[in-house]
Amino acid sequence: MANHESDHNKVDTLAESVGAQASQAVELLRHESRLHQEQTAQTSLLGGALAGATEFFHHGSASGRKVDDLRRDIEADLQKGQTGEADKLAAGASALVRADQAALARRATITEVGSGVAQAAGLFMAGRKGFALAAGVAALDAIKPASHESFSAEAVDVALGIGRSVGLKAAYLGAGKLNLGMASTAVGLGVGSRFADLALNRNTYLDGSSGQYSAALGARRVFDGTTDKTALLSDVVSMALAKGALGAINRSTDGALLNSRVWSTLAVGGVFGMTKGGVDETIRQHKQGRFDPEQLLLKTALSGAISMAGAALGGLPSIRSARPNFAGSEAREYQISGANLNQPIAEILAGSRNASILTRVREVKADGKLGPEQNLLVQHGGKGIPINETLAAKADIVASCDPASLPLALRERHIMPTVENTLWMTQSPGGKLTFRAQLAEALKKSTRIADYALDIAHPALPIRGGLSTTVALGEQSVSSLLRAPGTRDLLREKNTHDLGLYSEVLKDFKTPALHVIDGGADSVVVRLADNNVLKITHLDWNPEWGKRSYEDAQGNRFRFDARILGEPRTIKRPDGQATFYVQEPAITPVSAADMDTFIARLERDRRYLYTDRDVHQLGYTDMGNGRRGLVLLDYDAVQTPQAVQEEHRRLREARRYAD
Questions:
Q1: For the chain, what are the domain ranges?
Q2: 105-133 pLDDT per residue, tens
């Protein structure tokens, strides 16, 4: 391709005299045939396969045959002395050569793009398959059947090519483990690729004058190329532009670029390609003593697009692995296989925040079929809990909380890379593991059933229902839970509460949240990681709540309000107010008989009335030694007779005005 511009000018020069000069047309056509031979000699097995598959588009081979056919026809006429016929044929040589040069350029572009996409796919594909693809593509791209090189020379080229490709992939994984960020990783790959292209290239060490190889000559060339001022300046500019652009995009999308496996992989691929292509083109133009900004932008954009396409193809398996198993569901299910079938993974994780488990699993597909066996790493994560790198190196997929905090290479293997903070895991009989970003509504409601035992061991609160165990991997803030997409769907009163306001009011609340318990007309109820209950309400606060009591027949007073831990806080804003408080844990609902007992005690006291008469408004608290107390959870459900009468009066007034 480098000679095409000068060849194009040569066509213009020779075409002026080709009309009656058949011999010059033959020379022009012979030169074009040599270009075909040179391109073929430089075409690898991979490039040849791509060129053959796309012949219908570029027509390079067909055009080359036309060039050879025309040359032979003109030569035959000249040998016969039929100069007139030769001149007539020669008149079409210029146009044919132009068409052939265009076909050669298209073929070269296709092989360049295709090879680049395949190489990038190997770089960005996760796991052992990625290394295998990278090595295979490098080998196919190093073998050039028409180059007439010796077997030993081609073997060296293959080894060096595999070394370049696998080494670059190892550098990419290393950058991911160090969590260097997208911009640093991408630009670093570009620098590393340029170094590898020099250091692991046989021609770098070849002395053209003697035909011998020289390590000293090669080392000098590698040093000169690596420390080239133009290249280094371009790297600095690329880093600054990449950090600025990616940072701005991530901020404008509220972190979506960083948190999305798809977009972060494409971003790294695109920046890597643009960096490498832009710097290579800058060096080429600098050596030629010219500056062509249009060509520089074109080469940079093309290289970025090639690498981004390869990143998309290479990352496709891991991107697909991030999708839910079933349409309309956020859940992902895996079947434990092999000897670990009955391993109590949920119990182990519930018992220790530092536990990490590697197990063999097969994914349960939507049609019920099982996928191939994979190594799954399950562990807590987040602040202060580093990922188990020894097990992570053996894992095909990862399940942990807060995937955004993981190194890039591990984030690409996370089963749900966009989950915020907590990931819920349920282990069912038979070794089935189910992962959810939000605890299923059925499990949330089941925590109110008395026969569900709640293990209050912090930090992971397993919920046991029957033979299944659900455990939270990691922690999430109350604020993030309230603004999570599925939270409103879990409320009974979906349009009563301003969850955005609540989330803002509670942004500095320290105790992590587990899940939403309920959301009725009065308040949103959240289970905290310490097993206490947080309630948030938009209603006015009564300072007597949490302290009220009744008197029994012997004159003893007993608090019937569930105890409030700490002090309630009311925060007023222009768009509304919210009051929140932490309540002692209780199991609900109570039995109908216990509710009747509670009502009878209030009626004996005569100071309060139970207006709602709902078994869910009451709960059992643990008083120790196997004893349990009966307490009121919804304070507004019990009022003084005067307050009840006043409420009835307001209702009558409202009806009268309505009539």
A1: 332-474, 480-654
A2: 888 888 887 777 777 777 777 667 778 88
